[in-house]
Every structure is written in C-alpha cells, then in structure tokens.
Specification:
It is a single chain. It is built from 9 helices and 6 strands, in the order βααβαβαααβααββα. It is an alpha/beta fold and 243 residues long. Strands 3-2-4-1-5-6 form a 6-stranded mixed beta sheet. Strand 5 (203-208) and strand 6 (214-221) form a beta hairpin. Helix 2 crosses helix 3, helix 4 crosses helix 5 and helix 6 crosses helix 7. The longest helix has 19 residues, at 142-160. The radius of gyration is 18 Å and the shape is globular. The termini are far apart. The relative contact order is 0.24.
Length: 243
C-alpha cells in the first residue's frame, strides 16, 4: 500500500455556532444559543471570507504542491468551506462521515460552566480519566475519533496512494491527525492541545520525504488568510468540555 505524497487538513471557517459559543462563555451562560443541529451549523460571514481566502491560497500553489483530490466532513460548515475553497479548481471532492466533528453526547451545546453546573459528576470523571480517554454519555472520546481517522487514513492510502489529498474537517481532527501521522504519544498530543487553538481555515500539512514517509510541513497556518484580507479567528468548537 503506497503512502500519500502529501496530506493537508483545513479546519472549516468560522461558524455561527463558534460566534455563539464565544458569547455564551463570555456571559457566563450555561447553554450556547444554537438554532441548528451540529451537522447543520452554517458559516458566519467571516467564515465565508476565510474560505474564499483559502481558495486564493489553493489557486496560487505550484503544480507539484497542488492537491489531487479532496475529502470533506459532511457537516455543513465544512462542506461550505470546501465548496468555496475548491471553486474553479477542478479538484474532485467527496464526503466521508469519519471526518465529522467529535460528538459530545449529553454535553453538546453546554458551556464549560454549564457542564460543571449540570453534570458535575462528568466533570469529575473527565478530570480523572483525562481528555484523551474520557467519553461523555452518548458521545465520543478522543480515542474514538482517532479510531475512525485511523480507518480513514488506511482507505486514503489504499485508494489514493502516491497522490496529494486535502481534507476539510474540524479542530480535534487536526490534532488527532498529527497524533496518527507523526506517531505522537498521548502526553505529546495533550501538550499540543494545551499550547494551541486550531484557527478557522488554518492549514496543517505533511509531505512525503525521500523514503516515502509523511513528515510535518506546516501546522495551524493562517498566513494565507492575512495575505488575502480575511480575519483569522481561533474560536473553539461549540462542544464545551469540562475542565
């Protein structure tokens, strides 16, 4: 099974739920004011501008660094980001549910304060188990998401070996792809999550070295947004987690 020549993941542009989550956390609310189910959350105006800036970045790539194929999360904010970013490129794109956002179950739509108030036992269990292995009722742990991404990477290598693949997804997926592609430990992964917030429409990528192994090329890069006049944003996903 051939390794990929290159792999990128772009986090979706800023969503209306990202904006609502920031407002809810700032006001001390327990609930985030959401009007859509998670899969149907649209981009904000800023998010659409970020996606269009990403299109200009893609258009400026030289041929040898240009993606051959794209795969996107089926969630609307990722689909819309991919549609705008890939417009006019001719790059074929498909959807894969394994690129969906992490599911938080009963904690979905709550702020950190809301989790502590409504589910104090879950906040305590998460502190005991740690972020990587904690699975909220009805939701997924980070390890669960890693499992579906591991399967996706296997299929990408089988179906697109020797090609350059561009993914559109969500912030946890960016971290977990680094975990899988670079062989990080749990501790190294958690250090990354403490040090970084994945920016909307940021680019993270790997290129194959002379031995055919994917090595890091860029991480959480938003230079293309500034270059093309879009405002970078670093809002966390709408899923609040107990701390």
């Amino acid at each position: 099974m051939a390794e990929l020549r290159a792999l990128w993941i772009v986090r979706h542009g800023e969503s209306t739920a990202n904006v609502a989550a920031v407002a809810a956390e700032a006001s001390g609310a327990e609930l985030i004011d959401l009007t859509h189910r998670d899969a149907d959350v649209p981009l904000s105006t800023t998010g659409e501008e970020q996606a269009r800036a990403t299109a200009r970045w893609l258009a400026g790539l030289p041929g040898q660094r240009r993606p051959d194929v794209a795969v996107m999360s089926p969630y609307l904010r990722a689909v819309r980001t991919a549609e705008l970013a890939l417009a006019g490129t001719g790059i074929p794109v498909s959807r894969d549910e394994r690129l969906r956002d992490r599911e938080l179950g009963v904690l979905d739509g709550l702020t950190g304060y809301g989790v502590a108030r409504r589910f104090p036992e879950e906040a305590a269990r998460r502190r005991r188990l740690g972020k990587f292995y904690y699975r909220p009722p009805g939701g997924e742990s980070w390890a669960d998401v890693a499992l579906r991404l591991r399967a996706l990477l296997g299929d990408l290598r089988r179906d697109h070996g020797g090609r350059r693949v561009l993914l559109f997804g969500h912030d946890a997926l960016v971290f977990l792809l680094r975990y899988l592609v670079e062989g990080l430990t749990e501790a190294e992964l958690m250090d990354l999550t403490r040090q970084h917030v994945i920016a909307n429409c940021s680019v993270t990528g790997w290129f194959a070295d002379t031995g055919g192994r994917l090595v890091p090329d860029t991480f959480n890069d938003v230079r293309h947004l500034r270059q093309h006049g879009a405002r970078p944003t670093e809002e966390d996903e709408v899923h609040a987690e107990p701390v």
